[in-house]
Design goal:
Structural class: alpha+beta
Distance between the termini: 25 Å
Number of helices: 3
CATH topology of the largest domain: HU Protein, Chain A
CATH superfamily of the largest domain: IHF-like DNA-binding proteins
Strand content: 15-25%
Strand order of the largest sheet: 1-2-5
Length: 111
């Protein structure tokens, strides 16, 4: 059986949609929505934009009981061109790392 990995873009939109729905229906499915869809959309977009801007400045982003995003500097390193086998130097770059909180780790381990 072949295992297919989901596209990162599709996973992002799936989670973003869930976030919109949570904001829109925060009182439960039988309740009246607390926010309009456009307000929920704007709220989620504002939170994501704030996270991106904060990471771009090199600061960490911590969401209590969820986890922490950090920016890490990676040093230049030797590599190879996969097509030609030619030795190349991979330049230094900044990457984002995520460290889940202990609460999130326990919640995932219990399921």
């Amino acid at each position: 059986m072949r295992r297919v990995n989901p596209s990162p873009v599709r996973a992002y939109f799936f989670r973003l949609r869930n976030l919109f729905e949570i904001c829109f229906w925060s009182g439960g499915l039988n309740a009246t929505p607390d926010l309009t869809r456009s307000e929920a959309d704007a709220l989620v977009e504002a939170v994501l934009e704030t996270i991106k801007e904060t990471l771009a400045t090199g600061e960490d982003v911590l969401i209590s009981s969820f986890g922490k995003w950090s920016v890490r500097e990676k040093s230049p390193r030797p590599g190879r061109n996969p097509k030609t086998g030619e030795a190349i130097t991979i330049s230094k770059r900044r990457v984002v790392t995520f460290t889940p909180s202990l609460i999130l780790k326990k919640a995932l381990a219990s399921k």
